[in-house]
Amino acid sequence: MLTHYGVPMPGPTSAPTRRAVAMPPEERRAAIVEAVRPLLIEHGERVTTRQVAEAAGIAEGTIFRVFADKDELIGAVLNAALDPGPLEEAIAAIDPDAPFEQRIVEATAAVQQRMTDVWQLVSNLPARFHPKLRGPFGTADVLTSLFVGDAHRLSVEPAAAARMLRSLTLSMSHPMMAGDATSAEEIAHVLLHGIETS
Q1: What pairs with residue 4 in β-bridges?
Q2: Distances in whole angstroms, Cα of residue 58 to Cα of each of 23, 26, 70, 77, 142
Q3: Is pTM beyond 0.85 here?
Q4: Hey, where are the domains in the chain?
Q5: Cα–Cα distance between 5 and 10 in angstroms, integer?
């Protein structure tokens, strides 16, 4: 025992070390996918597992306990980007009491954002990943619901209006089709009022 001028002193103590609680596999997978998306936008397929590990705050070996290889990881990132769930939630969260045209503008902006996010990712990935893009865009029901309450103002059924909104937004926002993207306000105006001057 240590003494100080003959008085017994307690020995050094150390806090017990705790092992970090292991993250459930699905949470770990989701965290890695979220960390990798901006890396793929910047580096494409050239992204390294070291970059992935640093961005996700994990060891490189952890990546391959969750994903079989880098292709599987890239595929998981693309699947997450194509998941319509977040877009549907954003549209569903639009205030139903807001003016009709404002709701259409907000929905258009949300569709534009999703298209931009997917395009930034896919444009940096090789063609072997592109078949994943052939699935449905989703959001049909939630977009249709935007028009149901104002169906009396429409010359088409709400479902048709939803399809027009989606198609017009994509065609007027995609970099390969529109060049400079048209604003959500302009797209909504064209959809609801056409291009003819009053």
Answers
A1: 7
A2: 11, 15, 15, 17, 38
A3: no
A4: 25-80, 84-193
A5: 14
